[in-house]
Amino acid sequence: MEIRYNINMQLVWLKRDLRLHDHQALHLAANNGPFILLYIFEPDLWREPDMSLRHYDFLLECLEDLATQLNKKGGMLVVKVGDAETVLNYFYQKYQIQTLISHQETWNHWTFKRDIAVQKWCKKRQIEWLQPIQNGVIRALKDRDGWAKKWDARMTQPMVESPATFTDCNEKNDKIPSFDSLSSNTDACSKRLIGTRKQAELYLHTFLYERGEHYTKEMSSPITAFDACSRLSVYLAFGVISIKEVYQTMKKRQQELWAM
User: Which is nearest to 83 in space by CA: 42, 22, 30?
Assistant: First the structure.
C-alpha cells in the first residue's frame, strides 16, 4: 500500500533554470513552507530534431553541479524520468501537492504544448500553478510599443538569494536514459562549454574585465570571436545564470569604467 503523506508540500519544477541564485520560483516556495525540488527528464522532448548530444551532455553536467550545490546546503535535487503529467501525478498522489511553481518557460513548440497540457492537468485537480518570469520575454504582445521599458523594469528588480534551508526528501532519483537510446543526432563536440555555475561566473567575469574590451570590433571575425564573445548563451539558455544577474553585473562594471 502506497504511503500518502498528509503534508501541504509544494513542488518546484525546474526547467531551464538550473541554478539556486536569483531563482524566483525557489524563492516563492521557500517563503511558503516545505517544497520538493524536481527536474523531469522528458524522453519525448529529447527525441525532437532540435535536441542533440551536446545539449544532453551539457544538461547532465548542469544537473550534477546543481545536485552538488544542494547537497552542501542539506538539500536534494529529485530527478524523475517520464512525461510531465505522469511524474507530476505521482507527486500529487503521494504528497497531496496543492501548489506547483516553475518559471515560465521559453523554449520550443513541444514544451509550449506540454505546458498547455500541464495547465489543464492542474486545473482539473485545483492545483495552483505559479509561473514567475525569469527573462525579458513578454507573451501575447500585439506590438513592441513599451517593450523596452517593461524589459528594463524586470532586469532592474533586486535579485533574490538562495534559500538558507531546504526541505529534506527521501525520494530516489531515476536513471536518465542514454542519449543513444533517444536519438541519432550524436553531434559530439570536443570543445563545447562545461555545464557548471563556476564556469558561467568565470566567463561573465573574464568577458567584463578582460576579453570583452574589443567585443564590437572582434565579434564578427571567426579568428577573434572565440575569445571576444561572452560565451554565456548556453548558460543563459539552461538558466545556470540568470539574465538579470548578467545585466546587473554588466551595469556595475559599466559604472566602474565610467568612474575611471
Answer: 42
- The CA distance from 195 to 181, in Å, is 22
At 17-76, the pLDDT tens digits run 999 999 999 999 999 999 999 999 999 999 999 999 999 999 999 999 999 999 999 999
Reported in sequence order, the residue ranges of the chain that DSSP labels E, i.e. its strands, are: 10-14, 35-41, 77-81, 99-101, 128-130
Question: DSSP 3-state assignment of 252?
Answer: helix
The residue written with cell numbers 548556453 in the block is 234
Give the orientation angle of helix 53-72 with respect to helix 197-209, to 10 degrees.
100
Residue 58 backbone class (left: φ over 0; alpha: ψ -120 to 50; beta: rest): alpha
> For the whole model, what pTM was predicted?
0.93
Query: What type of residue is 72?
Result: K
Place of cell 504582445: 141
Count CB-CB contacts under 10 A for residue 16.
19
Dihedral Cα 223, 224, 226, 230, nearest 10 deg: -160
- Give me 192's grid cell: 563545447
pLDDT digits (tens, 9 = 90+) for 145-203: 888 999 999 999 999 999 988 887 889 999 999 999 998 878 878 889 999 999 999 99
- Give 20-63 as a 3 state SS string: CCCCHHHHHHHCCCCEEEEEEECHHHHCCCCCCHHHHHHHHHHH
Query: pLDDT band at 7, cuts 50/70/90?
Result: low
Q: Please choose, from the candidates 92, 161, 94, 93, the residue with its C-alpha nearest in 3D space to the C-alpha of residue 129.
A: 92
What is the distance between the alpha carbons of residues 182 and 48, in angstroms, rounded to a whole number? 9
d(Cα 102, Cα 121) in Å, to the nearest integer? 15
